[in-house]
Specification:
Order of helices and strands: EEEEEEEEHEEHEHEEEE
CATH topology of the largest domain: Threonyl-tRNA Synthetase, Chain A, domain 2
Radius of gyration: 19 Å
Helix content: 10-25%
CATH superfamily of the largest domain: Threonyl-trna Synthetase, Chain A, domain 2
Structural class: alpha+beta
Number of helices: 3
Distance between the termini: 54 Å
């Protein structure tokens, strides 16, 4: 019997750092819970890391989070030196994410949406990590590194509200221009699609985690613009405070 779908608490509140949960399955692939604050790798965004804390004081270190084989299942991948069988199905745990890692993902992911607003071309590749973010645009025109950095800074300073909402699959079908990504399509089959709206700036399907206002993105700079092919321009973002602007 397959374990039930994992309740994805991060979809409604990206700021949740922990939650109580119960183990629903354990195997060599990882630990599944009935509910979680851990975001699984997807849509270009890296998975969360953190800990599963047991009532007896033991801690299972989670090094990555991935989607399971069946829709709606999330795998919490444990450190190689961790004995996953130290817990059993039904064991209560407290799932706690690495908040600094998540915060970096939220800032970078929101910044990529700002970049999409500045570069009105389809996206054919994306990567969001704690150290940098990358977008590949399907275009052949040159991009100006300084102009993009200044554009992001302007949108950050304007403090636009960031929120998500849900639309029906029929609404998305009626508005295909909302989909900017060529490489990742919104998941189908659940009857609704999550969209991310930056007020007055950007609106597109997205299941990732984001800050609540562009002001929270902080100082993000374009560290590199590359011509990857005749029709691909790659833009890499970094945090100014990390010294990545050089």
């Amino acid at each position: 019997m397959m374990p039930a779908m994992t309740e994805e608490l991060f979809r409604e509140d990206s700021t949740l750092a922990e939650c109580s949960a119960r183990v629903t399955a354990i195997d060599a692939s990882g630990v599944q819970l009935d509910r979680t604050v851990f975001y699984p790798h997807g849509g270009g965004q890296a998975g969360d890391a953190g800990e599963l804390r047991l009532d007896d004081g033991r801690v299972l270190r989670v090094v990555d989070t991935r989607k399971g084989a069946a829709p709606g299942q999330i795998l919490h991948l444990l450190a190689p030196d961790t004995n996953a069988h130290a817990v059993a199905v039904g064991t209560p745990v407290t799932a706690v994410i690495d908040s600094a890692r998540r915060r970096a993902h939220m800032r970078f992911h929101t910044a990529t949406h700002l970049l999409c607003a500045l570069v009105p071309h389809p996206v054919d590749g994306c990567s969001i990590t704690p150290a940098y973010a990358r977008l590949d645009f399907h275009m052949n025109e040159p991009l100006d590194k300084q102009a993009l950095t200044e554009g992001i800074a302007r949108l950050v300073a304007e403090a636009h509200a960031v929120r998500h909402r849900w639309i029906s699959e029929a609404e998305l079908d009626a508005n295909p221009q909302l989909v900017r990504s060529m490489s990742v399509q919104p998941p189908r089959g659940l009857g609704r699609i999550r969209v991310l709206e930056i007020e007055g700036v950007d609106l597109q399907p997205c299941g990732g985690t984001h800050v609540a206002n562009t002001a929270e993105v902080g100082a993000v700079v374009v560290t590199k613009v590359e011509k990857k092919s005749a029709m691909t321009r790659r833009v890499i973002l970094g945090f100014a405070e990390s010294g990545a602007a050089g």
